[in-house]
Amino acid sequence: MAQTRGVNSNRGNIRTNVNRTNARRNDSGIYVYGNTARRLDIQRELEREPRRQLSHETRKNRDKVRHMNLGYVVFLVAAFCTCAFILINYIQLQSELTNRTKGLASLESTLNTMKLANDEEYSRITSSIDLEEIKRIAIGELGMTYAKEGQIITYDSVENDYMRQVSGNSN
């Protein structure tokens, strides 16, 4: 059947442009577009056909598959318990790590507070020392004098280190 757009050449009468390959009317009178109509038809035909009877052996095999034996149940319970144990330990370790991190942050905060208090106390002590008063007491009351030329010994150090005088003559 040769068909042109809008005209059926075999019958000679004019028809509207309906794409008959994509539109089908199902049993309820609703148009179904595309290839889904064919699937519906096949599905209905399958529903109308009587089901085949399964053999006794096939039914027996399917029943075996449906039921779980004791070994399989024990395996599943053991796997579940193992997974639960691992997950619970993982959560406990995460919680312990979080608590330790918080404790470390608290200790660092305490250390910083103590360092700040120590620096403030050192500054207070060094600012309260009157060096002129110490010089007056050392010279006037204790009889100390300035070092003379022969009493000063210089030492050249190879490393940047300090030197401690162990014994010395005070002449």
Describe this structure in words.
With 171 residues, this protein is mainly α. The protein has 2 domains: 51 residues, no CATH class; 81 residues. It contains 4 helices and 4 strands. The strands form 2 sheets. Strands 1-2 form a two-stranded antiparallel ribbon. The chain has a two-stranded antiparallel ribbon with strand order 3-4. The protein is rod-shaped and about 130 Å long.
- Rg for CA atoms: 51 Å
Bin the strand percentage: 5-15%
User: How much helix, percentage-wise, in residues?
Assistant: 40-55%
Based on helices, strands and strand pairing, what is the structural class? Answer: mainly alpha
How far apart are the first and last residues' alpha carbons, in Å?
139 Å
The low-pLDDT segments are: 1-22
Number of helices: 4
What's the layout of helices and strands?
Blueprint: E1 3-4, E2 7-8, E3 23-25, E4 31-33, H1 36-48, H2 56-66, H3 70-128, H4 131-141
Antiparallel strand pairs: 1-2, 3-4
Summarize it:
This protein has helices at residues 36-48, 56-66, 70-128, 131-141; strands spanning 3-4, 7-8, 23-25, 31-33.
